[in-house]
Amino acid sequence: MNIQVRPYTLADFPQLLEIQKEAFPPPFPEDLLWNRDQISAHVHTFPEGALLAEVDGVAAGSATALIVHHTGKPHTWAEVSDNGYIKGSHAQDGDSLYGIDVCVRPQFRGQGIAQALYQARKELVVRLGLTRLIAGCRIPGYHRYQHALSVDTYVRKVKQNEIRDSVLSFMLSQGLEPLQILEHYLDDEESCHFAVLVEWKNPYKKEG
Q: Which one has a higher pLDDT value, 207 or 28?
């Protein structure tokens, strides 16, 4: 299997939308799937952060990111992503690459697509001399534990491999570490509207 990651363009919009529809079925809010104007904004604002993974020429997954100044302040997905358009929140002189989505078509899951996209993001962080890669990580398994565990306890148990969460466990396997809990991050019933800000630090970048 040959996985290639390349920048996506506006011409890729039909494939990108199909990937998202398959990757995020209901109850994920359909109005959060990319529209054509958002893809155009990604391509024109920060093309390096707009990534498409193909397997033998077939679109299999995608990822979108922007650059921000990391402050540690609580935020929502809508705020950090400029409602998915990134134009108003992208900071070319920022210190952190912020991933606002990664999705893989179900038929290609477990074949290294998401890993390839995250590897491309890490390489971009290093190439641009940024301090870190961060992302607001969904915790879709939390709704099954919300009445028994606080969100902090749930995250700790996932980190300790006592519970598996399909998204957070993957993030941990890619070397990203939890930084903070974000409330009301996204209209996401499975995650009980929580997310976890996760971080991968550029090993070649010295802070301070």
A: 28
In one-letter notation, the amino acid at residue 34 is: W
Q: How far apart are CA 27 and CA 156, in angstroms?
A: 26
Among 191, 192, 179, 183, residue whose Cα is nearest residue 77: 183
Which residues, in sequence order, are bridge partners of residue 98? 66, 134
In three-state secondary structure terms, 186 is coil
**26 pLDDT more than 90:** no
- What count of other Cβ atoms lies within 10 Å of the Cβ of residue 127? 9
168-207 confidence digits (pLDDT tens)? 999 999 999 999 999 999 888 899 999 999 999 999 987 6
CA-based radius of gyration for the chain: 16
Look at residues 88, 40, 31, 95 and name the one whose alpha carbon lies nearest to residue 64.
40
Please name the residue that has the structure tokens 């400029």: 82
DSSP classification of residue 110: T
pLDDT at 208: 56
Q: Phi/psi zone of residue 56: left (φ > 0), alpha (ψ -120 to 50 degrees), beta?
A: left
